[in-house]
Amino acid sequence: xxxxxxxxxxxxxxxxxxxxxxxxxxxxxxxxxxxxxxxxxxxxxxxxxxxxxxxxxxxxxxxxxxxxxxxxxxxxxxxxxxxxxxxxxxxxxxxxxxxxxxxxxxxxxxxxxxxxxxxxxxxxxxxxxxxxxxxxxxxxxxxxxxxxxxxxxxxxxxxxxxxxxxxxxxxxxxxxxxxxxxxxxxxxxxxxxxxxxxxxxxxxxxxxxxxxxxxxxxxxxxxxxxxxxxxxxxxxxxxxxxxxxxxxxxxxxxxxxxxxxxxxxxxxxxxxxxxxxxxxxxxxxxxxxxxxxxxxxxxxxxxxxxxxxxxxxxxxxxxxxxxxxxxxxxxxxxxxxxxxxxxxxxxxxxxxxxxxxxxxxxxxxxxxxxxxxxxxxxxxxxxxxxxxxxx
Length: 391
Hints:
The chain has 391 residues and is mainly β. The protein is built from no helices and 34 strands.
């Protein structure tokens, strides 16, 4: 979890606290308001592009949480479109642009290049759910103009062989505008609109990669909805916003261990549909979309404030990190418990405007920070290892 520092006028105090279950506004996405874009997180950075901005667009932007800034990147190389399906696998991302194209593209942040991959094997579609599990990518549900409406098929992409394989279809009603995420070896899909039933949905389904089977789970709270959005942080999933039937802002956390939902803080940007969301480390991000009146380009970070923060398959309690002396005058020491494993991490300090005032490489579990000429006020610490946020 992110830790906070407090700098009184004559004393630098490092006070560890957690901003639990809160939304914090971050830098707006450049390029004006947009709806129905695509977004993904890739190794510590976020990416948003395509969608509708005074017409279909191919622009693509990178978000750096460390500097709270956006950078223009190479435009999507496929056709301009909306409601595309995107996921990341390791250091690269993938995008299938809707609504009528089947060409499928890889984005590599290392060289800022788009490369066309194997043509998507399913029907061209829009408003699908996408996620990745154990090095494989998945696209499911959506609206297929060529098939006349909602669909429920599931397709698996293998980047090693650059091939597509059809998997078990969703047993529930065919749908589009659904929301989903992945946790561990399982994918989750729920809500949406079905041309089969003629209405919004609130049912929720779990797909097990190991057995290629679906199981129905506890329904999403609140009214049935479509064009909601979802992401996962550690061991939990999150779904919210969408049409219910008007634009909504409610948000819910799903615990797969107990098959239960918990209401969380409503989205900080107000009611929203057609937005983009993804997760980076222990934060979720949500932005853009339509609020019922205007297209938006605002962008928000969600912090869970849970007692643990996920790093791969390991969860580290907050008490494994400490700062002393606290408060301090000219320096402090960050102590990281030996059971927290990392290779070559970086430690950053930010002021409350999101500006980074300190950055250094960390190779040991004990780090000394000099105050320097920092002004009085609150600051926060972030330790990142290979794109994984440890606190």
